[in-house]
Amino acid sequence: MTKTVLITGASSGMGRALAFEFAARGYHLGLAARRLDLLAQLRDEVQARYADPARRIEIVALDVDQSAAVAPTLRPLFAALGTVDIVVVNAGVNRFTPVGRGELAQAAQLIQTNLIGAIASAEAAIEHFLAQGAGQLVGISSLASLQAIPKQGAYCASKAGFSMYLDAARMELKRKNIAVCRILPGFVLTEIMPKMEKYPFAVSAELAAREAVSLIEQRKTVGVVPAYPWRWLRPFFGHIPDALWRKLA
Ligand SMILES: NC(=O)c1ccc[n+]([C@@H]2O[C@H](COP(=O)([O-])OP(=O)(O)OC[C@H]3O[C@@H](n4cnc5c(N)ncnc54)[C@H](OP(=O)(O)O)[C@@H]3O)[C@@H](O)[C@H]2O)c1
Questions:
Q1: Per-residue pLDDT tens for 21-80?
Q2: 28 and 54 in contact (C-beta within 8 Å)?
Q3: Core-most of 81, 160, 185, 201, by most CB within 10 Å?
Q4: pLDDT averaged over the chain?
Q5: Per-residue model confidence (pLDDT) at position 2
Q6: Residue 14 C-alpha to ligand 1 middle, in angstroms?
Q7: Ligand 1, pocket-test mutation among 7, 8, 14, 115, most atoms within 8 A of CB
Q8: Mean pLDDT value of segment 175-190
Q9: What single-letter DSSP state applies at residue 104?
Q10: Is 183 close to ligand 1, i.e. is its CB under 6 Å away?
Q11: Does residue 190's CB lie within 6 angstroms of at least one atom of ligand 1?
C-alpha cells in the first residue's frame, strides 16, 4: 500500500529535497512550513515531475515558533491525509551566536525553533501515531549534536537537546509500535547559512535526502548523511582538537 509522509520545513533545502525523494519512491505527501507559496509551488512541481494522479499532496502553513499552535495546526493535515506512516521533523534555523556578545535573544529564538518547535512537532506526530497504533518519527538533528562548533553554541545545544528528546521518545515508544529515528546531517548546501560550500565534505540537499530516505526506510535508529566520510569519523566527534574547529568558525 502507498505510504504517506509528513515533512515540516518542506519549503526549502533538505525538506524540499526530502519531498522530491519520497515522491520518487511513490509516497503521498503532507508538507508544512511558513511559506505557503513555496509549498504550493513544490506541490505543483512534484505533480508535474511524476504525473501521478493518484498521489495526494496536502500543504499547510505552520510556524513551529508558535509551539502551542503546532498540534492544532497539524491535526487537520493528519485528518486530511488519513494514515500517516512517517513524520519528518525537519524545520530548523541556524545563525552564529558568539558567546558573551549580548546575543541571548538570538540564541533563545534559535532554541525556540530548533528545540521547542521540534518537540512540539514531534509531540503532535506521536499523538497521531498513538491513535492509529503505529508510525515512525524522524528527527533531523545534526552532527553538531555530537561536537561543539565555535560561535554555534546555541545551535549545537538545540540539536543535542533534540537528539536527547528523540532517544527518550524511542525508549518510551518501543512497545507502542512507534519507531524513532534521528538523522545527523553533516554539511549540506542549503540556504540555512551563508557560504555552506566552505565547510568540509558539503553535499547537495538531493544527495543528503536520498541517503536519509534510505536510512528511514531501513528504520535505522540513527543515521549519518552523507555516509562518506561522516560514518567513519563519527566516533571521533566530541574528541576532535579544538584548533581544527576554530579554523571553521
Ligand atoms: N544544511 C546543513 O548543513 C544542515 C546540517 C545539519 C542539520 N541540518 C538541519 O536540517 C534541517 C533543514 O535545514 P536546511 O539546511 O534544509 O535549511 P533551509 O533550507 O533554511 O530550510 C529550513 C526549513 O525550515 C523551515 N522553518 C524555519 N523556521 C521555521 C518555523 N519557525 N516554522 C516552520 N518552519 C520553519 C523553513 O521554512 P519556512 O521559512 O517557509 O517556514 C525551511 O523550509 C534543519 O533542522 C537544520 O538544522 C542542516
A1: 999 999 999 999 999 999 999 999 999 999 899 999 999 999 999 999 999 999 999 999
A2: no
A3: 185
A4: 96
A5: 93
A6: 7
A7: 14
A8: 97
A9: H
A10: no
A11: yes
Distance 221 CA to ligand 1 centre (A): 21
Q: Is the CB of 189 under 6 A from ligand 1?
A: no
State pLDDT tens for residues 132-179. Answer: 999 999 999 999 999 999 999 999 999 999 999 999 999 999 999 999
Identify the structural domains of the chain with CATH numbers, from first to last.
4-248 (3.40.50.720)
CA distance 246 to 138: 31
135 bridge partner residues: 178
- Catalytic position from the list 27, 155, 165, 228: 155
Task: Please report the pLDDT score of residue 248 as a whole number.
Answer: 64
Q: Yes or no: say if 112 and 208 are a contact pair by the CB < 8 Å rule.
A: no
Catalytic (active site) residue 155: yes
How far is 70 from 157, CA to CA, in rounded Å?
22
Per-residue model confidence (pLDDT) at position 249? 61
DSSP letter, residue 112:
I
Q: Residue 189: CA atoms inside 13 Å, Cβ hemisphere, count?
A: 9
CA–CA gap between residue 214 and residue 218 (Å, rounded): 6
Residue 247 has pLDDT above 80, yes or no: no
Does ligand 1 come within 6 angstroms of the Cβ of 36? no
How many Cα atoms are found within 13 Å in the side-chain-facing hemisphere of 121?
31
